[in-house]
Design goal:
Among the domains are: 13-132, no CATH class; 193-287 and 368-418, Ribonuclease H-like superfamily/Ribonuclease H (Nucleotidyltransferase, domain 5, 2-Layer Sandwich). By secondary structure, it is of the alpha/beta class. The protein is built from 16 helices and 8 strands. The strands form 2 sheets. A 5-stranded mixed sheet has the order 6-5-4-7-8, sandwiched between helices. It has a 3-stranded antiparallel sheet with strand order 1-2-3.
Length: 432
Amino acid sequence: MESNTTNPASLHPQTAAQTPATDTAIPSLLPDNWFDPIEARLRLKTREFLEELFEEELEQVLRRPWYAHRSTLQTNDGDAPAIPAGHRHGHRPRTVMGTFGEVEINMPRARLKTPDGAKEWQSKVLPAYQRRTQTVDAIIAGAYLSGTNTRRVRRVLAAVFHGAISKDTVSRVWRKLKSDWDAWNARSLADEPIVRLILDGTVVRVRLDKKATSISLLVVLGVREDGQKVLLSVKNVGGETAEAWRGVLDDLIRRGLRKPEYLIVDGGAGLESALAQLWADVPTQRCTVHKLRNLLARAPKRFYEEITADYNDMIYAETAAEVEKRRQAFLRKWRLKCEAVADSLEEAGDRLFTFTKLPASQWKSARTTNAIERLHEEFKRRIKTQTVLPCAATAAMLFWALLASGQITMRKVDGWQTLPQKPADQPVDIVA
């Protein structure tokens, strides 16, 4: 008779005293006497359930239960097929890891009859070579995306999986996301009702040719007609040149992106040049936050507070007329106190104030690239522990995965209710 007594040694073959030296670096939060009767009983029942599940799956394939020579399953016309689809031939041990931990089961084996000869049966519930459930892979990927490196993920999950998750396991799970990433990069944008684009880049450190190198990630964020923000593209390139941005924009157009009604940019020369070649007639807004940084970079430090106050009074005025009035006052004042500041403001031209042609409810979201800046900050916060990413492709894919997995969410833009209203028909200062 089979005993139902739980044997801790069979479920947890390595106690704390028997842990290999290679795992001594993993701190355990469990006490010395770490046997948990609830967990042990649960895993025993889980093993029994899984074995029954695979036996039932095989029985459906063979069309007969254990020791039966003829099928007992009915077909659609009510007749039972007389010839089974194959025969069993024992079991083999197999390890499965799920949220219930790591369990070793006896997997049934069978030979199936096919027109090409006999072949080994493979379970569809647990495909060949699969050792983890999809939920476990999701937990591993989620822990990695939450802002930690592969070794720390192993330590975090050690208490649940008893050291069965290695840093190589984390890397393999991460690489499995590449197929989804490739599909996302090739998806059609023809049905996306995009009315606004926000474009900006960020610099990250990656390992190229065994050396830490800085590269740029070019990010394109779209705003749909209902105000919902959506990530359209993220590409890893060497720098924010006109050629690099043109490549990103051409790829979006090739996949069906329609011409936007409004653009928000950071003011980089490369991006300005690329947009002038494609959409010279689209109203374009220079980010007001980036321009303030440019002004401060051209002034002595003792003027920082005064420049910021005057600039904010101008940008955050309540009406377009008041904005223009304070703009002229800013230029007159700083032309005398620090000419470089006034020159920098004039360099942006009317593009710094394109937002004033929109309904006032949209001004907050239409005058800066803050929507992308928040993504950049969240992305860098999560990769802070890694310092240098493994490769350039990993950087772009990680940025996408943070959004695809729900680690980072985006809400609708402020003033989305008035998005159907077009910008006022006024001349736009185009900088090639």
